[in-house]
């Protein structure tokens, strides 16, 4: 029988007698449980929000994106495009021209990010589920259409039902223009809107999709492109295809995965999560102070018991273990309760979505949660380390009471 653990368990909970110290121990345990539960819930909600944001961005972004390392555009010839399309693992190659443009609709005007895409972009149906009005249609025979973000629609007060007013796109002419007439300083093209999409504010208030030849004419790009968006065959690994593309295209191009396209955002999300964890780790440290004082008072209350143990031949190491085990019992029991309650709440939220975001969107309504077991492990290790440090001093103090305490 492990004598120190048996005694620690009796000090922690006894059916026959509930002393003041036992009550304080239970309060400390409840405090640890609440903090642990709150920490795992907050981290899981943060994981869910991060995953949701990444999924929204990944809906908009391609699996691989080819961009020039210098400048914002590059000349694309037919041979290069065919070579990329023939590369093993490549399913679809979409040509892209993306740049800012000035848009006017009736009396409203706004600067948007115009994204011209080749016809196969529509065939991928990547944004079909994000269309909230109209259709994601860029071409009908020879007639061209634009698909706009919901934020752009709000700013322009645009109605898809009004066929009398098209969208007017303006872009500065290239080269030197010898004219004082403002209308001759810019290129102008008109196009009718066909649909409205809603993804996330960054996209909704900025992006307008148009056919690539519309964008090329407005910007005078000719065969130049700003990017190539590549969809991978599901059975092929993205890093493998990326390496083959990089080898084919050389150092003049950069191949970006979805995470690399938003590397800064992902870095910020990880940093924020780290500081959230530090904040709650500090709260765990505050909770451990209660354990420190609980064990200190227990050491004072039980000094005669300690003296008796010394008389019976107990060593200092045995006495120290009693109070270390007492601290472990408090923290471990609280952690188990907190982790169990936290997991239960997260499971219910993930299954039934009791807590709502409190906003009306076309994408999500419930607070997203994502349980990552590594978070549970880190929280548990943090509790063990912090409470062990908090228990060490009272355990050392308890060893100072020897058999002379019997004489007091």
From TrEMBL:
Keywords: Cell membrane, Membrane, Transmembrane, Transmembrane helix. The keyword Membrane applies. InterPro entries: ABC3_permease_C, Lipoprotein-release_system, MacB_PCD. The keyword Aminoacyl-tRNA synthetase does not apply. Belongs to the ABC-4 integral membrane protein family. LolC/E subfamily. It is a multi-pass membrane protein. The lineage of its organism: Bacteria, Pseudomonadati, Bacteroidota, Cytophagia, Cytophagales. Pfam families: FtsX, MacB_PCD. The chain crosses the membrane at residues 20-46, 274-301, 322-348, 373-392. This is Membrane protein.
């Amino acid at each position: 029988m492990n004598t120190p653990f048996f005694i620690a368990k009796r000090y922690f909970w006894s059916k026959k007698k509930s002393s003041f110290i036992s009550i304080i121990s239970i309060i400390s345990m409840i405090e640890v449980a609440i903090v642990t539960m709150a920490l795992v819930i907050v981290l899981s909600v943060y994981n869910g929000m991060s995953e949701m944001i990444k999924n929204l961005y990944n809906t908009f972004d391609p699996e691989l994106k080819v961009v020039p390392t210098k400048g914002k555009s590059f000349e694309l010839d037919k041979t290069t495009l065919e070579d990329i399309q023939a590369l093993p693992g490549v399913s679809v190659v979409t040509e892209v021209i993306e740049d800012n443009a000035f848009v006017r609709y009736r009396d409203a005007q706004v600067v948007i990010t115009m994204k011209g895409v080749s016809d196969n972009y529509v065939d991928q149906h990547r944004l079909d589920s994000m269309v909230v009005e109209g259709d994601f249609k860029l071409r009908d025979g020879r007639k061209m259409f634009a698909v706009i973000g919901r934020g752009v629609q709000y700013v322009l007060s645009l109605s898809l039902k009004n066929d009398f007013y098209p969208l007017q796109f303006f872009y500065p002419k290239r080269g030197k223009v010898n004219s004082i007439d403002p209308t001759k300083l810019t290129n102008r093209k008109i196009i009718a809107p066909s649909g409205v999409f809603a993804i996330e504010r960054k996209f909704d208030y900025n992006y307008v999709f148009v056919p690539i030849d519309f964008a090329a004419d407005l910007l005078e790009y000719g065969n130049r492109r700003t990017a190539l968006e590549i969809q991978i065959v599901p059975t092929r690994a993205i890093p493998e295809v990326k390496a083959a593309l990089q080898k084919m295209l050389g150092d003049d191009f950069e191949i970006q995965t979805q995470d690399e396209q938003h590397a800064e955002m992902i870095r910020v999300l990880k940093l924020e999560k780290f500081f959230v964890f530090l904040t709650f780790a500090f709260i765990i440290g505050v909770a451990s102070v209660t354990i420190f004082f609980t064990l200190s008072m227990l050491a004072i209350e039980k000094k005669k018991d300690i003296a008796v143990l010394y008389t019976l031949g107990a060593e200092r190491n045995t006495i120290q273990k009693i109070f270390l085990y007492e601290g472990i019992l408090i923290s471990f029991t609280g952690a188990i309760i907190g982790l169990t309650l936290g997991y239960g709440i997260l499971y219910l939220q993930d299954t039934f979505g009791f807590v709502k975001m409190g906003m009306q969107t076309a994408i999500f309504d419930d607070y997203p949660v994502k349980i990552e077991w590594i978070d549970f492990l880190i929280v548990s290790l943090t509790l063990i380390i912090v409470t062990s440090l908090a228990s060490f001093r009272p355990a050392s103090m308890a060893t100072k009471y020897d058999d002379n305490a019997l004489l007091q």
